Amino acid sequence: MDDRITLVQGDITSLDVDAVVNAANSSLLGGGGVDGAIHRAAGPGLLAECRTLGGCATGDAKVTGSHGLPGRWVIHTVGPVWRGGEHDEAALLADCYRRSLEEAARVGAETVAFPGISTGVYGFPIEPAAEIAITEIRAWIDVHDRPSLVVLCAFDDTSTAAIERALAR
Fold first, then answer.
1. Catalytic residue (choose from 3, 35, 142, 145)
2. I want to staple 59 with a disulfide (CB 3.0 to 4.6 A). Which of 52, 63, 95, 129 is the partner?
3. In angstroms, how far apart are the furthest CA atoms of the chain?
4. Does 35 participate in catalysis according to the annotation?
5. For residue 2, what pLDDT is reported?
């Protein structure tokens, strides 16, 4: 594996990193999957802060404090809903990774953890999503010093295997 990219399988809310990326919905007010887990673990302060942000566009990212999570920040990004691949889903997903890394660097995060953005209820197929994630992360770390470590947090065996294959290419 790359020396600045690592893969873990487990609960992203328990990772000891500076910033956790939240696969959020456009309201930023919580939802299911990773988004719901992050909001539950962070507590009501996260929701209160998110209410001040005015939502977030697909492909963009916004930062809040971490509240009850181990790190310092939550980077909320809104991935695309999969609609067959003919509606700029790949470009929008790439934007999520790039914008999240920009925000991590802006706030000074040395370590950042990503879930599989859009691969849950939004239906983005895991294999191309993993390829996009690895491509964007590698492109970023090739030219930027921060973050110094990117953690890819897979939820299950299927996601772990897809990310391992993408890392090996």
1. 35
2. 95
3. 42
4. yes
5. 78
